[in-house]
Each structure stands twice: as C-alpha cells, then as structure tokens.
Amino acid sequence: KVAIKGIERELICPACKELFTHPLILPCQHNVCHKCVKEILFAFEDSFADGGSESSNQSSPRIRISSSSMDRIDRISRSGRKRNSLTPRSTLFPCPGCQRDIDLGERGINGLFRNFTLETIVERYRQAARAAIAIMCDFCKPPPQESTKSCMDCSASYCNECFKIHHPWGTAKAQHEYVGPTTNFRPKVLMCPEHEMERVNMYCEICRRPVCHLCKLGGCHANHRVTTMSTAYKTLKEKLSKDIEYLISKESQVKAHITQLDLLLKETECNSERAKAEASQSFEKLYNVLEEKKSAALRAIETSKNIRLEKLQTQVEEYQGLLENNGLVGYAQEVLKETDPSCFVQTAKQLHVRIQKATESLKSFRPAAETTFEDFVVDITKQEDILGDLSFHSNGLEMPEISEEQSKMYNKALISWDCPGKADSADIYVLEYHKLNRDEENVTWQKIDVCGKSRVVSDLDDDSSYAFRVRGYKGSICSPWSREVILRTPPAPVFSFVFDDKCGYNNEHLQLNPRRTSVESRAGFPLLLGSERLQVGCYTTLDYIIGDTGIAKGKHFWAFRVEAYSYLVKVGVVPSNKIQKLFHSTHDVTSPRYEQDSGHDSGSEDAFFDSSQPCTLVTLGMKKFFIPTTPAAPKDPASRILPLPSCLGICLDCDRGRVGFYDAGRMKCLYECEVDCSGIMYPAFALMGGAAVHLEEAVTAKYREYHDDI
C-alpha cells in the first residue's frame, strides 16, 4: 500500500498550487480545479476585450498564470479570431499543466468530466492530514454533535440520533447508501456532460473518455471506435496494475537512481560554489583594472588642475601689479622720484621693458590656462557594449551559422541555422533581429528564445530589410553571435491562390498535383499528334492556366519556382474580361512570325510589346529570363537575357496600374511595366513542351510540442 502522505505532489492543482477542489479532466488528460478553469477562462476572455492588457490578466489572486501562458493568450487574441462567426465556436483553454492551448469544443467547461476518483483520493489525504479533526453533524441543534455517518444519497453527514430521525425504518430513505464521515459526496451514476439525462455506458477508444449511447448514435463520437464500460474498466485496470507492479519490482533501481541524483545534487552545489568563486575573481580583476584606470584618470585631472591654477594665479598677481601703488606700477612710481640721471637711466631701462610687456598684455588679454577639461572626458561607449555582452564563453560551444539556403522570407520569415561542429552543442538559442533604418542611430534588437534550430518570425513590415543573428546557450555558457544575415521582405502583402482546374484547363497537356500548387506540361504523345498533322513548320499553341482567385484592388505579391529543365514558360497577369480571348487566342503559337524574341527578322521585333495581347506576360525558359522588347528596354538583345532566378515573384499594384517581376530570393525587381487593371486581375501562366511551375508555399509556424496519444 502506498502511504497517502507520499502522493501530495499528485494532488496539487497546477493553477492554484493547492489541493484539488472539484477537479475537471481536460482533453489533454491533465486535471484542474473547477474554479481555476473558470477563472483562467475569464482571464482568457478578458484578453480579447482588453487587447491582452496586463490589468486584465490579473483577474483573480487565487490563480497564478505563468508568463508563457499569458504569452499564448496574447498570441491567440492577436490572431483575430471572430467571436460572432456563424460557424460553431470552440473554446481554447491554456492548460497550466502542459502549457498548450486545448480545444474544449462548443460546450466549453460544460463538456468536461469531473474526476471523482481523484476527488476521493484528495479527501482521503485531507482526512489523513487532519486526523483528529472531526466532521460535525449537519442537522444537530447547537452545539452540533460529531457525525458518525454520511449519506451519499442525501449528501449530508449525521450523528446516530439524527440519522435515525431522517432515515426512519421502513421508508425509502432507509435504503440510502451511507459511509463513514466524509465531505466528499459524488453521484452514484456518472452522467454524460453532452446529454445530461443519459448515463455513460461506453468508452471511446479514440478520444479516451466515457460516452453515452447518444454520443455514439449521432454525436461527435459517431464514427469512433467504442467499447463497453466494463471492458474498458477491466482492460485499463489490468494495464495500470501491470505498470504499477513493474515499477514496484524496479524499486531497487529507483533507489539507486535516487542515490545517484542525491550525489549529483551535492556535486552541483559544490560546482556552483566553485563557479561563483571563479566568477567573483574575474570580476575582482575587472574591478582592479577599473580602479587603476580611475585612479590614473583622477591623478591626471588633479595634476592638470594644479598646473592651470598655478598659471592663472601667477597671471592674477601680474595684473594686480598693474594697479596704482601696487607691484610693478608702484615700483615704477618710486623710480620716477629718482633725480640723479645716471642712476635713473640705469634702473629705468629694464623697468621700461617690463612696463611695455604689461601694456601689450593688457591690450590683448588672454587667460594663461583653459578652464574646461574636455580633453579628460572618458569615452566608455565601446566598453559599455563589451560589458553588456559579457557572458560565460566556452571553447566547446560552437558559433551557430544562419543558413541562407534554408532560410526563407515570404509572408513570414523562416530563419534556420546550424552548428558546424557538434550536433547539439547548445540547449537553447537566442534569435535577434531588427529592421534596417539609416535614420536610426541606436539599434534595438528584438529577442526570441528558441528551443530548436529554426524559428518563424511574423509581423514584419513589407518592402523592408531585416538583419538576423543567433547565438547558443548551454546553461550559463553562451557562444559568440553568428554572422548577421540580411533578408528583405516582399514589396507587398503575399497573395495566396492555387491553380484553377476548371477555367480553360487542358488536362491532356497539363497535369496538376492534388493540392493544385504545381502544374507540369509534358512534351508527350499529344504534342507529337499535333505536329504530325502539320506538313510545314511546327505551329503548336501554348497551354494556359490561371489562378483560382482574382484581385480587384490594392497591391499584392506572389512567388513561384520554374523547373530548370523547362523549355518555355510565360508568366504574368490577365484581366477577367480577356480570359476567354486568352484561351482562344491565335497569336499564342510557337512560330517565327509570332515569337517576338525568336531572333528572326520577321518584322515583329519592331512592334515592341503588342498592345493587342490579351494579357501581360514575360517569357522564361532554358534557364533564362527574357526582358520584353519595349522602348525602354536595352537595344542589345543579349542584355535583355538574364539568368533565371531560383524563385520568381510578381507584384501587382492595381491602384497604380503597374506589374513588376522580381527575383524573389533577393526581392530585386527585374522588369516593370504598365498594365490595365480595369477588371479583376488573375495570375496567368503558359507552358509549352517539357516545363513545370511550382507555387511558393506560405511560411507557417511550426511548434515542437509533445502530443499525447488522444
């Protein structure tokens, strides 16, 4: 038998940190007090109304919501969940046990089961803890007597006399079930929270919870695998018993691990004290260096002050001598009283020179020393940065490197990094980023703690450049910062669509993947049949396909990849009123007369971009990007041919009537032209021969979470 007092840790609510009171079982199989669930939900709902303010998060002093839970509440409240949606609304609950957002379904807290088994164990623990504290009778007149029985049907406690009065012999109440004195009253039959009048009699093996027959017939468990309650009880009890027996049989091994952990605790204490002493010595050295520098700086200032004061004091004495009856003037006045010419001349010559110098200094007054000490200002800007970055460095912790190939900037930024040396050298990484702005002198880095080696960063401004860097931490030791990588965001918000498999789609020449994000043109048997019917030349049309969503206004950006083996691909936009003309156009043929960039002198080269074309397209193929022939384009044909980027982007500005074609890897515009945006604009693609186009997938947040088997 397990001692009741040894399981206190399992009886504490993760929210209020007290013994469970009416615990509810969450879908993640964690237990939380009924009152705590309500208070957390109130704080959760207030975060939507108050924008996640700090004042609304402190709705109850009883619960202690961790900062990570509040971060998840703020994140979900910022996601823009519509509260007045016509679709059934589900309730999200931030579980304090597993730190995950749990979906409570449409019924919310009313759809949760009360854990009566845990409640009974808590009651046993309370009785063992208070031992001598008696449970008083609920029906005695004051003073109440100590109860001897508790009726499970009446949910009350009685002394012997009151029990006989309220449960007379020969009545229905005499058949009530009674137990020893207790405060834990639970219903004799467990009812279904979905269908309150039905008792649970089955167990859903998919959701791992009891259900009633109505849940199985037409509820959310209709297609789930269920079993009888007795079978589930027997199976789970056997499994639990075997697992407990296994753990008990390994008691010696557990004790050995506990002994080892006790040694590790002591070793950790010793090592931490040693590390503290070493850190103190290091800082003492810094203090000594700073004290020496401080003393030297103060001595230099004091010496300079004394020299300057001495010079200024001498100058003061000299000017005081110019006053009447003082110093030099008084002495000269006494010399003037000399009547003997020879004696006067002997003394007056040298005195006249001194008088002339004093007169000149009086005309051009200048202090003998500067009063400011600007030369003695200590610049500690660099030292502050170094000390601010002061941390525990280790030669064994490798500097991470951000992979520009695996990193991606699209609707969000996906930053990936790796350590060239050890596989898992750091326990946690810190990713920092900031927007590049020439006007800002002081850079403010945004900081994110990451457990893995990649992170999705959202809420970035369009058409902006950002610098990213990362460093690793292993305990208190950190690696140096990685090299900064600069990535640029798209020039406009990302436009999401898939290929349209209905409007003009030619399934004989084109092949879509199931998700409709990739299209492939195969130069196969249908193309040979089309060529076989022609005796002169090879006139084969382009196969067009458009996006399933149009753009009516605003500025939008989308990206895609063209396979390197593609022979001919055209990309651009088409207005809705010209879609039919696009799919039936006779000009879209591979012929020397109609191919503008063919190199043949057929006269079409002088026509520049044909205004009669139903859509605005640029030509790609054979690993090249062809700039269309326009008046602004270079005259040399070779300068109009660029290497094909690994990822291309199109930016459509309906308000300005312009479309741009970008190198999406560097977000650099390769070509821009005017376009008629009078109608709804659709992304357009044309393929011929062996070619393939893949739409760029949006960056989505990936969480590394532990998923229970539910």
Automatic annotation (TrEMBL):
Residues in COS domain copies: 336-393
Ranges in coiled-coil conformation: none
Family matches, as Pfam families: ANCHR-like_BBOX, COS, zf-B_box, zf-RING_UBOX
Keywords from the UniProt entry: Coiled coil, Cytoplasm, Cytoskeleton, Ligase, Metal-binding, Microtubule, Repeat, Transferase, Ubl conjugation pathway, Zinc, Zinc-finger
SMART domains noted in UniProt: BBC (SM00502), BBOX (SM00336), RING (SM00184)
Location of the region described as Disordered in the Swiss-Prot/TrEMBL record: 50-88
GO cellular component term, pick one: microtubule
Domain B30.2/SPRY: 477-704
InterPro entries per UniProt: B30.2/SPRY, B30.2/SPRY_sf, Bbox_C, ConA-like_dom_sf, COS_domain, E3_ligase_FN3/SPRY, FN3_dom, FN3_sf
GO MF terms held by the record: ligase activity; ubiquitin-protein transferase activity; zinc ion binding
Residue stretches of biased makeup (Low complexity): 55-70
Residues annotated as domain B box-type: 187-229
GO biological process, any: spindle organization
Family: Belongs to the TRIM/RBCC family.
UniProt protein name: TRI36 ligase
Native organism: Campylorhamphus procurvoides
